[in-house]
Design a protein that fits this description.
Structural class of chain A: alpha/beta
Order of helices and strands of chain A: EHEEEEHEEEEHEEEEHEEEEHH
CATH class of the largest domain in chain A: Alpha Beta
Subunit structure (chains A, B, C, D): Homotetramer.
Cofactor (chains A, B, C, D): Fe(2+)
Number of helices of chain A: 6
CATH superfamily of the largest domain in chain A: 2,3-Dihydroxybiphenyl 1,2-Dioxygenase, domain 1
Family (chains A, B, C, D): Belongs to the extradiol ring-cleavage dioxygenase family.
Strand content of chain A: 25-35%
Helix content of chain A: 10-25%
Radius of gyration of chain A: 18 Å
Distance between the termini of chain A: 38 Å
Enzyme class (chains A, B, C, D): oxidoreductase
EC number (chains A, B, C, D): 1.13.11.2
Oligomer: homotetramer
CATH architecture of the largest domain in chain A: Roll
Largest interface: A-B, 53 and 53 residues
Largest sheet of chain A: 9 strands, mixed
CATH topology of the largest domain in chain A: 2,3-Dihydroxybiphenyl 1,2-Dioxygenase, domain 1
Chain lengths: 310, 310, 310, 310
């Protein structure tokens, strides 16, 4: 198999302060499809074009933020192999039994040096995208309910020890470095973008003193017009926008950052080029040009980008 | 490494009846970047956003068509492993020494049951996309010279024994089936679309009595507006258009098919969804609905699609 | 007032063979807003972004086609002035009292040399576009119900005596010629595009032996992506497509031509440049290049364009 | 003639601190076409798709800002009529002889209550858009040289006495009010958008204590993708961006505001709806919602919008 190991981001569990308010935001404004609720009171969503049962889960809690971020791997053998590799590397792993999350198989959970909980899993029930498997339609009303992203694309996580995180993801989990922002002295990286396939990023990290923080989960749109439409829908619904619409210099992707009612930032994103692991050198941004990397037209390092996390 | 084995289409060598006429077409109208000419008289091109030295090669000959289609693999160990796997599967392979093609390492060549020559290689000199590696620009004039695709995306090849080709690509080379069109009786496939990563297709085949035929090489654009612009540039240059602009039902991608001056069809393409190898079932088109798969708005199986190859 | 006289196309009344089938097509697939039904059984529609009560009316009849096409004029004084001008020019006019059409004032009706009934009127009740007049929203769900054009844009009518029609529209009604296709001998025009403002066309005519025929009514979309989406929605609903998506050379606009269930052609259209009446010369297409004028990428004069009318 | 009186914005003359620096900005980055220089040292430009000889003129001076803004009228009779109407209204007018500006006929100049010099003229030499008048091309390389707007679209001017300006433009010059922002007490307008055709604005004014100030001249693009591209080209060239890319709530148009090297703001703009003079009510924004009117997604009244003029 040419595409092996870790396939893609599969699920993110997020804490919200008021569950129904969160549901209204993610279901009615962002346009995720609600696929279930479990005995713990968690609400499960998927993006309309995803085939697996869920990719985004809300849990009510006293503070906002990320519970865990999970990657789907190719199969159970891969899951077991990666679990063994993690342990051999010195990472303590935990097995969470199948069924703890709705329609999801056994998960391998571990904490990374930035303080985030990462999970791997091989099984999640396929429920389809609603377009059919035989003579599928190319357009469906679901693709226009709310902002209606096609998939959970990636997350940007803030925490300490980005160098150790990079080493773990590249040496054990099979990711490669696509882009990075250097520290002011050029000796290290303040931010890294990592891919496990040929997406421009599947996960990204930025150095931050407090561990385990969420900068944003990102949802993929297909066109720049859909990014504009996302901004329109946010405005009509008084969703607070952070940055955008604009293009990132990093990844060349186009974006709006906004906040959910609990203060979790989310991104509606499109575009970016497609790298491959044979690309010898990661694209590098100097610290003094971080602003152009963040907001390409404005060349501006917005203060909130560096300071507001959940 | 999560992305292993065969990475992507890397090069296609095409026969043209008049070399300079072909160069004018592919360089000035399609907007490929000419990167070299070799002692055999072959002319090498790359797409502007590709980093490797070449992806498309013209050779003057008495008849149009495809000499060979090559895939880049992760590294030399992968190349040797796949060579051994092919031989173990019963496929005779040939080693072509590094340097036979400009800036390209050793290639493993073999004929597949449809009569096409396929190659694997691990090394091609990286020359970059002209945007720089440090604080790269997000826009360059090269991205607007001619139609200016970002990469060689895939090819559709016509020949016999599609079932055997599918078995070889999926069992030995690590591809998976993304979509297919059934035979009229539903017992087999008349056409298959295969991926080795999470592109909607890296190679496709259709059943055809004559072996080794080229239906089209496809070049990727980034937006539907660029497809329209491609059609404008074709019209201004009197490039004969076959089909489009339109959307394919198969892959959901958007397309124009047109012909180069020697009668080789090429495609300017964008979009499509991104599948993964854990998708359990390939999308399936019934033969009676092939027209909607080809031309989604018109639901029309254009005669030329089935009959004109080179 | 800088914008005086005839303002724009205001309404078209079309014959359909089955009223409810027609309503389903225009309301549910094209996405017009149904605004009323009258005692004669006619069904009234508007496009979502139009402010007046109606712009498109269906009447059940034994044959498809156009009953009449109406233009809104600035005010009642203008209506009376144009009526007098028409009579002075030798055109017989008829007054149809206010209230004959729902929410529509008195109309001046006359037959033009191509055999079509044209109307002028000054009053139609403003019902708004649903976005509000104070702090209006920039996005509304109505803008995405079905294909959802923003307005009735123009019509192309087929009939005899195009030269006399041109003279009437330019000398009496204040239109100017924007583009034209010459006859094969170059001595006259086989088709003309006329504007009364700075739209690229408000009405167009083509020479045809049979009088009073409808080629198509055109509905405006805002982007090329919306033209693609229109094609998707047509395909899902099995609406028969005639030509497109493509760009016209004439007007530079982008189009899909398709048929309603009764065989009336309609167009979903976007773009085109904006001419002004001080442009000294109309753009001219030679007859041998009519194909590029119709279908710019394909440079093809599709047979149906010349022969299928209602 | 349906389109009479004032047709459209025809030219703007702007002061720059360094002429050659200004030329490089407007010619090489914005992509205007340089069409001439006169004995006074002024440099003349047009947008590629405009047919008249010039629309934008640079004059070197000690301070940035707007010298005058001119409208083209239908013909000489209209020019004389409007001159007489202005004088009858109590506005002092000045005749500037033909030839004072290159390829431009006699101009009628007058000062409006906001302290700006406005001009009317009927004649400017048509030089064409480079696409030809017979079988015109739909694509030309000029349309992609720099940002490459299609036309000078409108200007926003800051000065006192907006109410008196509105009265003059609507009662004498034939404009109508399309949108407005109310004063905080709702008793008057702090900003008005006026049209003389069916563009969403041909000129706009905002109340400001200092007379004769330029907020921005606006150049029209055709798509939201071209707005993104404009931002890319600005970033590559280090053009300072003020606001955007974003959508305005007012007009629904999409925008980037940026500054030329002398500090004159310019806009690259697309879209907006098309109003007509029979629309009974102008769209109205309350002062407390001015932010949503300016930047629809962010709902933010950027400080620079109110305070930085030239």
């Amino acid at each position: 198999m040419a595409m092996t190991g870790v396939l893609r981001p599969g699920h993110a569990q997020i804490r919200v302060l008021d569950l129904e308010e969160g549901v209204r935001h993610y279901r009615d404004i962002l346009g995720l499809v609600e696929t279930g609720r479990d005995a713990q009171g968690r609400v499960y969503f998927k993006c309309w074009d995803e085939r697996d049962h869920n990719s985004f889960i809300l849990r009510q809690a006293d503070c906002a933020g990320l519970d865990f971020f999970g990657f789907k791997v190719l199969d159970t053998a891969t899951l077991n192999k990666l679990d063994a590799d993690l342990q051999a590397y010195g990472v303590k792993t935990e097995r969470i039994p199948a069924g703890d999350m709705l329609e999801t198989g056994e998960r391998v959970r571990f904490e990374i040096p930035s303080g985030h909980l990462i999970e791997l899993y091989a099984e999640k029930t396929s429920v389809g995208n609603g377009c059919g498997l035989v003579n599928p339609v190319a357009w469906t009303a679901d693709s226009e309910r709310g902002i209606a992203p096609v998939r959970l694309d990636h997350a940007l996580l803030y925490g300490p020890n980005v160098a150790a995180v990079q080493k773990l993801f590249t040496e054990v989990l099979g990711f490669y470095l696509v882009e990075r922002v250097l520290t002011p002295d050029g000796a290290g990286n303040v931010a890294i973008w990592l891919s496990c396939g040929h997406k421009v990023h599947d996960i990204a990290f930025a150095e931050y003193p407090e561990p385990g923080k969420l900068h944003h989960c990102s949802f993929l749109l297909e066109t720049w017009e859909e990014v504009l439409r996302a901004g329109d829908i946010m405005s009509v619904n008084k969703t607070p926008v952070d940055i955008g619409p604009t293009r990132h210099g990093v990844t060349r992707g186009c974006t709006i950052y906004a906040w959910d009612p609990s203060g979790n930032r989310f991104e509606t994103f499109m575009g970016g080029y497609q790298p491959y692991p044979d690309y010898k050198e990661a694209l590098t941004w100097t610290f003094d040009n971080f602003g152009q990397g963040l907001d390409y037209p404005q060349r501006k390092l917005h203060e909130t980008f560096l300071t507001v996390v959940s």
